[in-house]
Amino acid sequence: MREEMQDFGPPDGGPLQGLVASRIETYGGRSQASPQSTAGSFYPQGGPLLEPSRRRLQNNVPFAKGSGQARGLPPIRLRELEPEKRHGGHYGAVPPHSPKFKDVSKARALEVRLHTFSMFGMPRLPPEDRHHWEIGEGGDRGMVIEKSWKELVPEHKEMNQELCHQQEALWELLTTELNYVQKLKIMTSLLAAGLLNLQRVGLLTEISAETLFGNIPSLIRVHRSFWEEVLGPSLEKTRASGQPLDPVSLKNGFLTFSERFQPYVQYCLQVKQTMAYAREQQDTNPLFQAFVQWCEKHKPSGRQHLGDLLIKPHQRITKYPLLLQAVLKRSPEAQAREALNAMIAAVESFLRYLNKQVRQDEEQESLVAAAQRIGPYEVLESSSDEVEKNLRPFCTLDLMSPMLGIAPEHTRQLLQEGPARMKEGREGKLDVYLFLFSDMLLVTKPQRKADKAKVIRPPLSLEKLVCRPLRDPHSFLIIHLTEFQCVSSALTVHCPSAADRVQWLEKTQQAQEVSINECSE
């Protein structure tokens, strides 16, 4: 017997891969706010509702079958709670009348609206909002599955153990797909729908739903299409024939994995800002925190925390190779193994591309941050005002410009930085701050007042750089060559420690090797 998948269990398990997975560790995490008990204490704005248990508000979408009162929610009362009883409302540890809420009237209005949602369901949004956020469109009717593959294969008792294990692995692929889509829809049908409804009455208008949820609606459409065109037809074939699920039938769909799952690139590039925005709003906006806590404690959310929901796309996209490898392990047939190996290769190729995009985006962010810390370019002393006027147009350094002689897809990276003491010729030692980029070494001097470092030597191209350790374990020599392989300048660098010298020499050598490889591409 078929049933809709509504399992809101723990996050998908399995190891995660690459830079995408590292973002989960960096930006993921569970909200620390603990859900509290619900207490509806006020009637909706505009006066009491008569006989709430006997009717449902028009155009409201219920959270689940049955009324709010059938799920144990308290009836709407016609008077306020006594002062000593006001601390168990919708806001948990932050009562709506607490001084933490600057606008008590908005806190009161929010409590009323949330209680109304609990009692009568979520009001329907305008058609354009429902279409964008995939709310109430009825497109998931075909995304159903039986409790077990054995219900579809009458002769499962006669099957050998290896084939049974293969079917279990394929069934896990199908069931976890539907579970995942349901978790994505929590963010649209509950969180986004609730937020947009509140904004229609002037509450939480400062929150951007697009910033908070990114392109989650696009991900839902991706997986709906993937089910309708790839996974669903394979399941329907088994339903019609009674034969075991065939992994070969999934091959063509998985070979187009990269094209189908392109929206994940945008999501992964934005997830850092998305999760930071969600955390900041929960930490600084008591009304938004109250709304999120209300969502998290309701049954349709599966008690999922907002932070947990936002990292699920990472977990799912990196789990596909593991799911397919589990099927491959139990598939001795040559044709099935060939198809599964091709499918795994297609998915892993997309993950490598995704990791590359994330890495380049992180490198760009790091470069922007470094460029903001580097100020004036003062490598020469002008002899007169006239000379200074002519030099001024050339006294700039644009770290955001492309690297010379290297393909534009390779972004300049900040590899190493730190303080040192530098000596040039017979002059005394000078306190400097060095920046090692993927194509140059930059010598700067910190400016205490401006909180920036000014460039005091022309950029030293790594392609023309020779580094040699000196007898002093803290020091090394930098030799910069001209295009004619002649010495242009020589700097003696004294590091704070011997370990620092080793690190500078190793990082510089590695950067030169990478630069040579990138130039040859």
Protein architecture, described:
With 521 residues, the protein is of the alpha+beta class. The protein folds into two domains: 2-33 and 125-363, Up-down Bundle (Dbl Homology Domain, Chain A), CATH 1.20.900; 385-520, PH-domain like, CATH 2.30.29. 46% of the residues lie in helices and 13% in strands. It contains 15 helices and 13 strands. It has helices at 18-27, 104-120, 127-133, 161-200, 209-213, 216-241, 251-255, 257-260, 263-284, 286-296, 306-317, 320-329, 334-373, 385-391, 498-520; strands spanning 2-4, 60-61, 122-123, 144-146, 374-377, 414-423, 430-437, 440-447, 452-455, 460-461, 465-469, 475-481, 487-494. Strands 5, 6, 7, 8, 9, 10, 11, 12 and 13 form a nine-stranded mixed beta sheet that branches. A two-stranded antiparallel sheet has the order 1-4. Helix 4 runs antiparallel to helix 12 and helix 9 packs antiparallel against helix 11. The chain starts with a strand and ends with a helix.
